[in-house]
Amino acid sequence: MISRRGILKTLAGALVGAFGFAGYAFSIEPGHRLVTTRYRIRPEGWPDAMKLRIAVISDLHASEPQMGMKRIEEVVRHTNALKPDLILLLGDYGVGQTIYARAVPTADVARALSGLSAPLGRFGILGNHDYWGTSLRGWPYTEKKVNETAQKYRDMLATAGIRLMENDTVRLTHDGQPFWLIGTGSMIALPIKARKFRSFADLPGQLARITDDAPAILMAHEPDLFPTVPKRIGLTLSGHTHGGQVRLFGYSPITPSEFGNRYAYGHIVEDGRNLVVSGGLGTSAFPVRFGVPPEIVLIDLG
Asked: I want to staple 280 with a disulfide (CB 3.0 to 4.6 A). Which of 58, 111, 124, 302 is the partner?
C-alpha cells in the first residue's frame, strides 16, 4: 500500500520535473543553446575538384528575450568562425510569436548581420513571416499589403549588404569552377483564406535563366517546394519548419508542412536529389524548443 507520504513525494517529483522541463524548453534550449549542424554532401554531377563550404542561417525571428541582439551577434561570430565560402540566409527575420516576444528593430538586425563575412558573398531570401507578419491576424491580406511588409526586410538586407535572392539567379565562381545560386519567394506569401495561400515562388522562371550545365543550388524557404525541384538542382536548402520546435527520437509531432515529417528536418535524399532543412534559430507560434536547439548549418559540398 502506498503511503500518503509516498504519494506526496511522487506528486512533488512530478511537479519538479514539469517545471524543469518547462524551464528548459521555454528558456534554456531556445534562448541559450546554439549548435553547429554539419553535413558533407556530394550531389550528382558536382565537380570532383570543387569543394564549397556553405553556412546557412534560417528563421532568425529576431526578438527579445530568446533571439535578441546579443544572441544575433553571437550567431554572426559563430558563423564567421566556421570560415564559409558562402553564407545563405533563408528568411523569417522578424518576430514569430507574440506570447512574450519583443521585436528587435530591423535597423539593429541589419547592423548585426552586416558583420557576416564570406569570400563569395552573403545572399538572402524572404520567408512567409517576412510577407504577412508575425501571425495571421491582419485580414484581409492583399498583394500590396504583403509587399509593404516585405519591403522592410528587403531594405534590411540591403542595409546589411546582403544580396536579396527573391526570385533571382546568379552565376558564381569558386576555385575556377562555376555554379548557379537560385532563390525563390515564399510559397505561402499571400494568405487568401484559412490554410490557402498564393505562392510567390517562381522556380520555373529561375531555371530558365540557367544558361550552361554548371551545378546549381536552390534557396527555398519552405521545403514543400522540393517535390517540384528537378535533378538539375544539386542541392535545395530550406528552413521554415524549425524542425517542429519539439522533436523526439527523430519525430516532430507538429510540423508546418503539407508533408508532415517527410521534410521536417535534416538531410533528405529523394530520387538522387538532396534537400537540407535547417531547424533554424528562433521560434514561432509558441516560444518553445525541445530536442531541436537553435542551429547554424554548415555544409561541405564535394
From this structure: 58
| H/E element, 53 | strand 52-57
* Per-residue cell: 204: 520555373
Picking from 63, 42, 53, 31, the residue whose alpha carbon sits closest to that of residue 135 is: 63
**Alpha helix (H) residue ranges in the chain:** 4-23, 29-32, 69-81, 106-113, 128-132, 143-159, 203-207
Query: 62-90, pLDDT tens digit by residue?
Result: 999 999 999 999 999 999 999 999 999 99
- Name residue 173's amino acid: T
Q: For residue 189, what are the contacts with CB-CB under 8 A and spacing of at least 6?
A: 126, 128, 131, 132, 146, 150, 197, 198, 199, 200
Radius of gyration of the chain (CA): 20
Collapsing DSSP to helix, strand or coil, 225 comes out as: helix
168's enclosing H/E stretch is strand 168-174
pLDDT at 11: 39
Domains and CATH numbers, the chain: 33-301 (3.60.21)
C-alpha torsion 91→92→94→99, nearest 10: -160
E strands along 184-265, which residues? 190-193, 196-198, 216-219, 233-238
Q: First and final CA of the chain: distance in angstroms?
A: 65
Contact status, residue 253 vs residue 67, Cβ threshold 8 Å: no
Helices 143-159 and 106-113: angle between axes, nearest 10 degrees: 40
Q: pLDDT per residue over 258-284, tens digit each?
A: 999 999 999 999 999 999 999 999 999
